[in-house]
Specification:
The structure holds two protein chains of two kinds.
Chain A (H helix, E strand, L loop, with lengths): L1 H40 L7 H26 L7 H18 L4 H25 L4 H20 L4 E2 L3 H7 L2 E2 L1 H25 L5 H27 L3 E2 H19 L1 H11 L1 H6 L4 H27 L1 E2 L7 H11 L11 H20 L4 H26 L3
Antiparallel strand pairs in A: 1-4, 2-3
Chain B lengths: L5 E12 L2 E12 L3 E6 L5 H9 L6 E6 L2 E2 L5 H6 L2 E4 L11 H5 L6 E5 L2 E4 L1 H14 L16 H13 L5 E5 L7 H13 L6 E5 L3 H7 L2 E6 L2 E7 L5 H9 L7
Parallel strand pairs in B: 3-10, 3-11, 6-9, 9-10
Antiparallel strand pairs in B: 1-2, 1-4, 4-5, 7-8, 11-12
Classes of the chains: A mainly alpha, B alpha/beta.
Chain lengths: ~400, ~250
């Protein structure tokens, strides 16, 4: 028993450490990308508060979708129709705002109603017909996109009302921004510090990872505080994203709903046997995905101030990529909100840096593909060793 | 056996699936604090019987009494409410979740509830899990380890800890030692023998006859959907049991 226990410690510590190493690597790789492009190809433009602020805005839409996607993936589901759903939401927003001149509040309600309804439809087909969500949402990818073109008659409307426009184009004043970032970042820094100090008996490598994690958390806090304070404050879309991140992360770790998502992905049979309703959970997750997609649609519509029905063709795939780069398993059971945020930031950084360096967008797709392959390669190497294969 | 209270009493239970009869008119009882084994060849009806008591399968005819009340339309959820918990052969653990989360999966202790929205009380769950593992004499580095990290025997004990977490009246065990080596199974059997101390009865189905003889007070032998023999494990040998299972006539009725 004593022997068995000693090896168990090593095994599980490895599992936890592997996830930590993965996130830290991702964080440092992102910083490396920034530094390289800043110093070599863009004459110091990447790391300006102005660019980092716009980078943070650029990642919001994909990141919000990737968070919803993370929950679905953990529960062994997927949503390929997210981009189409967002397009339809945006088309509806502009139909209401421009063609029918409806007020902002009603537009928002309609946007969320459309998103949630489509999520419910996806989830219900999935559960009632017992069709894999890949197929259900592949169908959605087509029919929902088609509906967006039909509703808009293929036209791109532009010009929302002033208040709707402000949703994505205003800032939390710098003083409030820095206070908010320091409070939130301070809380996570304190947690990381407590974790680091409590790890006296851990292996040296685990302790080193704890310190690195503390460094990244504290560095991110100070960096974000400085960037947003110096430029114009926290952009509204980023503020919304921050709330979504904090809420979903908390729900994932502290509520029965959050833990049951993981249970569903870990062992659906076991989840069913203890009385967790797989149908209800799955439909609920798709409805939530619809709500996240609607939120992303609202932000995108307000940012762009135009509603082309063909928008977001690759969005669902990008969201899946961000989640996977962030450590979410395509086979369910594993993944984290912070990982997905890091994955989204990495993808947005590549797009941002390449376009600043004047590289054709085609190369961005190549770069994203390469990063995915690197991530998967690192995963399979580290994971196989971690499992003692 | 008539003196003590019966947790389970089956009267002429039958179950057929179309033309196939899985269980044919069987009667048995499990007393309070008793460990009762069910032996039989593949297809003898052991798992149907077990699932019936766990509420997974409803009888076609006959009566099933739980705590002396007729409960013919048992569901798994209702069976749980009545204090019946089951340890499945595949253990039904979520490898990706922590030990403590597995023990309380679906029945989490909460600090706040609003309808279906429930906030988990991790501290209370950790404390209660520690108590359970102390009862089972199981030492683990941390209750917050994922189950992936555990050995087969430890996983089995986690599954049992989950089964006894809410002070059940009956724990049903499907092949508890099947996945373990004989040596690794010994401590587990020792734990099972001690379960009646916590006030619950145990129903075990196993292919390992020596395990049944070691742990059970009584053993029923099932053959082709019928209970053909009932033994007190004190006065039956492994050979006799084997004969009964195989249907050779030497077994004493």
């Amino acid at each position: 028993m004593a022997n068995a226990r000693a090896s168990d410690v090593t095994n599980s510590t490895l599992a936890a450490d592997t996830r930590k190493i993965r996130l830290l690597l991702l964080a440092f790789a992102t910083i490396l990308v920034w530094l390289a492009f800043d110093l070599i190809w863009t004459d110091g433009f990447v790391l300006t508060p102005r660019n980092l602020t716009s980078l943070s805005v650029q990642m919001t839409v994909t990141c919000i979708l990737a968070i919803g996607m993370t929950w679905l993936l953990i529960a062994r589901e997927i949503d390929l129709s997210a981009g189409a759903v967002m397009a339809l939401v945006i088309v509806v927003i502009f139909q209401l705002q421009v063609v029918h001149e409806v007020g902002t509040l009603l537009t928002l309600i309609a946007a969320f109603a459309v998103g949630i309804l489509l999520g419910l439809i996806n989830g219900s087909i999935r559960i009632v017909l017992l069709v894999p969500s890949f197929v259900v949402t592949l169908a959605g990818f087509s029919w929902i996109r088609g509906t967006a073109f039909i509703v808009s008659e293929g036209q791109t409307h532009a010009g929302t009302n002033e208040f709707f426009y402000l949703i994505s184009n205003s800032y939390l004043p710098p003083a409030y921004s820095i206070a908010l970032i320091l409070i939130v970042g301070g809380y996570f820094t304190w947690k990381a510090l407590r974790n680091t100090l409590a790890g006296q008996r851990k292996l040296p490598i685990s302790r080193m990872l704890d310190w690195l994690q503390l460094l990244v958390v504290a560095g991110t806090t100070i960096g974000a505080a400085a960037v947003f304070y110096v430029y114009r404050g926290l952009p509204f879309p980023v503020l919304i994203l921050l709330i979504v991140i904090l809420a979903t992360n908390w729900i994932s770790t502290n509520t029965t709903f959050g833990r049951h998502i993981y249970a569903l992905g870990g062992n659906p049979m076991a989840a069913r046997r203890v009385g967790i309703s797989i149908s209800l959970m799955t439909i609920g997750l798709f409805a939530l995905m619809g709500a996240f997609t609607a939120l992303a649609g609202v932000i995108q519509a307000s940012l762009l101030d135009a509603g082309p029905p063909g928008i977001g063709q690759l969005l669902a795939l990008n969201a899946i990529s961000a989640a996977i780069i962030g450590g979410t398993s395509l086979f369910g059971g594993y993944g984290s909100i912070w990982g997905t945020v890091a994955g989204s930031l990495m993808m947005a950084s590549i797009a941002n840096c390449l376009s600043l360096a004047g590289v054709n967008t085609f190369y961005q797709m190549v770069a994203t593909g390469i990063i995915l392959i690197i991530t998967i390669a690192v995963d399979s190497l580290v994971m196989n060793r971690g499992r003692g294969v | 056996m008539g003196v003590r209270e019966n947790v389970v009493q089956a009267e002429n239970l039958s179950k057929s699936y179309g033309a196939v009869t899985a269980l044919d008119n069987i009667s048995f009882e499990i007393g309070q604090g008793e460990i009762v084994g069910f032996a039989g060849d593949n297809g003898a009806g052991k798992s149907t019987l077990m699932k019936m008591v766990a509420g997974d399968v409803t009888p076609t005819s006959g009566e099933l009494l739980i705590n002396n009340k007729i409960e013919n339309n048992l569901t798994t959820k209702y069976a749980q409410k009545l204090g019946i918990s089951m340890v499945y052969q595949d253990l039904a653990l979520c490898d990706n979740l922590e030990i403590v989360e597995n023990i309380f999966l679906g029945r989490e202790l909460t600090r706040f509830e609003l309808g279906r929205f429930k906030v988990i009380d991790k501290d209370r769950m950790l404390a209660r899990s520690q108590e359970l593992l102390d009862i089972l004499d199981l030492e683990l580095p941390s209750l917050e380890e994922p189950v992936t990290a555990l050995s087969g025997g430890q996983r089995q004990l986690v599954a049992i800890a989950r089964a006894i977490a809410f002070s059940p009246k009956l724990v049903i065990m499907d092949e508890p030692t099947a996945a373990l080596s004989v040596k690794a199974g010994q401590p587990l059997l020792e734990q099972i023998r001690r379960l009646p101390e916590t006030g619950c009865s145990v129903m075990i189905v196993s292919h390992r006859l020596s395990d049944l003889l070691d742990t059970c007070d009584r053993i029923y032998v099932l053959r082709r959907g019928n209970i053909t023999h009932e033994f007190s494990s004190d006065n039956v040998s492994e050979a006799e049991l084997l004969h009964a299972i195989a249907g050779v006539s030497e077994g004493n009725q």
